[in-house]
Amino acid sequence: MDDRRLENIIGKLLRTGVLLAAAVVLAGAGLYLVNHHSEQVSFHAFVTEPAQLRTLPGIVASAFHLQGEGLMQFGLLLLIATPVARVALAVVGFYLERDRLYALVSLIVLAVLAFSLMHAS
Amino acid sequence: MTVLVFTIVVWLVSTLAGFLGALTGLGGGVVVVPVLALALGVDIKYAIGASLVSVIATSSGAAAAYVREGFSNIRIGLFLEIATTLGALLGAFLATRTSTHIIAIIFGFVLMQAAYQSLANKTPEDAPPIESDALATRLRLGGTFPVKGERQEYGVRNVPAGFTMMFGAGALSGLLGIGSGAVKVIAMDRAMKIPFKVSTTTSNFMIGVTAAASAGVYLNRGYIDPRLAMPVMLGVLGGALLGTRVLVHARVSTLRIVFGLVILALAIEMIVNGFTGRI
User: Fold this and answer.
1) Is the pLDDT of residue B55 over 90?
2) Which of residues 114-143 of B touch A (CB under 8 A)?
3) Counting C-beta atoms within 10 Å of the first and last residue's C-beta, which end of chain A has fewer, N or C?
4) Does the interface ipTM go beyond 0.85?
5) Partner-chain contact A43 B42, CB within 8 Å
6) What is the pTM (predicted TM-score) of this model?
7) Tell me: the pLDDT tens digits for B228-243?
8) Which residues form the domain of B45?
9) DSSP string covering B33-96, please?
């Protein structure tokens, strides 16, 4: 394992994550548009999202009930998870390179990301 | 507006923003937020939530192509992401406590800078590669990049200054839901003396991780509405992928001027609307 190989693996992971997320969002969009296409919509005023679209368990539950909004939000969650997975992979990669300094650097970044995402659970 | 019409309009606008953002190297976020806020009357909190998501998509979507070229430096990226993610957390918390007028005004000034960058269009000449200073050597930040088929070594300088600027770039990204790639490139290229192409490709990598750090806060505060984020994300991503393909063949100098003027107009609108309290 060297830096170039690690970057290659990470690049592919990121592309796969984005394509997967986009596919899930598209599927959710289909469901949502079929069921709600003729309703009126406006985002003029900010009203916070319902809890089922703001928390990890809520989004997952809503997606598995095949609700359009829930499925789209689940796809967006996959998208947000993609760079997080990239950093997690870097932790492992640098550990395998026996590069303790950069394994630690990656771990710090991962901790900040985990702290942020904990707000969503 | 009905859901169907609204979704199609937002998707079209976002595709155009992603396309132009890729062609000019400014990113889709800086265009999509003011257009949603000014033209479609979307609350700026929803606009920056949707934009942030699209920023993650374009950054990650382009990464594989950049890696293949062999310019990006994973160590520089990860090390500076400590600063950008912490900054992004701060920015996202600030966003939840700042009035939308202030956010609109700050956004306007960032747009002004983007307009200037688009109009001036200076491709910086790379100075000959330099040796790393003591701290950068200890952190093993230096690397190699391809020059005419051969890999040339480069060094890194001024790590504390770059790190501090990256914290600012992260805060701006978290506050405004944009990638703030321009500030990241300036921090690496100007402050840390990293070659320009290494700076831009490494910045692209960092943008997604930085945005992911604000995403948790945005999600929790209800800034990310899937009904709006869906067409924005799909549009900006599609437009950006198309833009990167066209980039190789297109003459973009005229386009940059037109685009720069459009952004300048958006900047003035945002600032005026922020001051008069209409956003």
Assistant:
1) yes
2) 139-140, 143
3) C
4) yes
5) yes
6) 0.93
7) 999 999 999 999 988 8
8) 3-276
9) HHHHHHHS---HHHHHHHHHHHHHHHHHHHHHHHHHHT---HHHHHHHHHHHHHHHHHHHHHHH
